[in-house]
Design brief:
The chain contains eleven helices and eight strands. By secondary structure, the chain is an alpha/beta fold. The strands form two sheets. It has a five-stranded mixed beta sheet, with helices on both faces. It has a three-stranded antiparallel beta sheet with strand order 1-3-2. Helix 1 packs across helix 4, helix 2 packs across helix 3 and helix 6 crosses helix 11.
Length: 312
């Protein structure tokens, strides 16, 4: 199996001390990227050999519960899911490159649990963030085909000026009216917007339902939850209809954590399973351009993890 993450899988003697989400992600990744087929017994034996557990029954109970989680993930994501769950076994559905959305979100989730991984490869965080924004937008366009998405992202290098980007938002969801004088000289941090998700009507009138979505793909995601600041946006753009917030991350959560994050996000919460649920609508939903960019970004990270695991 893959090398155990340093964070999230811990020695358990009298009680389970490991993060159930990290363990489920690690099993997924071990199947998708490494062994191609695993059983509950395989995972239990590995954890016993690694001295995570001394009690086999205790380990079996914990891993069987993770299998239930994998069943749930498969049911909620359809063709996006890169493994098949068959009773007490999981099998890779094919080469991981056929499941770029799942592989990308899985790597982003696990990478922050391996302290050496990102330090070794020194990723381009701008590229990572942009790819996750496109992934989120294309998922939403598939799930809500009557709605439109556009990428904001003026935190990155862009050919458009700040004023042009604000004017674009105003035209898409309002009547084009803006009030930039109070904000054009600011650092614009409160204007964070990654994906604009809105419903267009044929009447061309303003007052369109709109969600301003913040995307967070790294370990600092907790610092971004609750953004963007809608009060600032409503001051800059005349929206007519109050916009809503959205927050997208590539991670999975326990039910309790998901509920808490919904409250903190103050709006639509998109986790990995909701993003990958586009696979229930369409077998292939990610554009070829985004797919190619994700595969190029992923390949060295996965190769590095496999090499490290083989040497351990």
């Amino acid at each position: 199996m893959l090398l155990l993450p340093k964070n999230g899988i811990n020695r358990s003697v009298k009680e389970d001390n490991s993060d159930p989400i990290v363990v489920a992600d690690w099993i997924e990744a071990s199947c998708m990227f490494y062994w191609k087929e695993l059983s509950v017994r395989d995972v239990v034996d590995f954890l016993m050999d690694e001295n995570i557990y001394d009690d086999q029954d205790m380990a079996s109970n914990f891993i069987n519960a993770r299998w239930d989680e994998l069943h749930r993930r498969a049911r909620l994501t359809g063709s996006s899911y890169g493994i098949r769950v068959e009773g007490q076994r999981v099998r890779a559905s094919g080469d991981w490159k056929r499941y770029p959305a799942h592989a990308f979100c899985l790597v982003l989730s696990l990478a922050i649990k391996y302290d050496w991984w990102f330090e070794h490869f020194r990723p381009n965080y701008n590229e990572q963030g942009e790819l996750f924004e496109y992934l989120t937008a294309e998922s939403l366009e598939t799930i809500t085909p009557d709605w439109e998405c556009t990428i904001g992202g003026w935190s990155r290098n862009t050919k458009l000026t700040f004023e042009q980007l604000v004017n674009d938002v105003a035209t898409r969801i309002g009547d084009g009216s803006t009030r930039l004088d109070d904000w054009k000289d600011s650092d614009q941090k409160d204007l964070t917007l990654d994906v604009l998700h809105y419903r267009h009507f044929l009447d061309e009138l303003p007052g369109r339902p709109t969600t301003f979505i913040q995307c967070a793909s790294g370990g600092d995601w907790k610092n971004k939850i609750g953004k963007p600041n809608l009060e600032v946006w409503k001051d800059v753009v005349r929206t007519f209809t109050p916009p809503a917030k959205g927050f997208a991350v590539p991670f999975c959560f326990t039910d309790a954590d998901f509920r808490r994050n919904c409250v903190k996000a103050q709006g639509l919460m998109l986790d990995r399973l909701r993003i990958l649920s586009a696979g229930l609508k369409r077998e292939t939903w990610l554009s070829q351009q985004t797919t190619d960019r994700i595969l190029q970004w992923l390949s060295p990270f996965i190769a590095g993890l496999l090499t490290k695991s083989s040497l351990s």
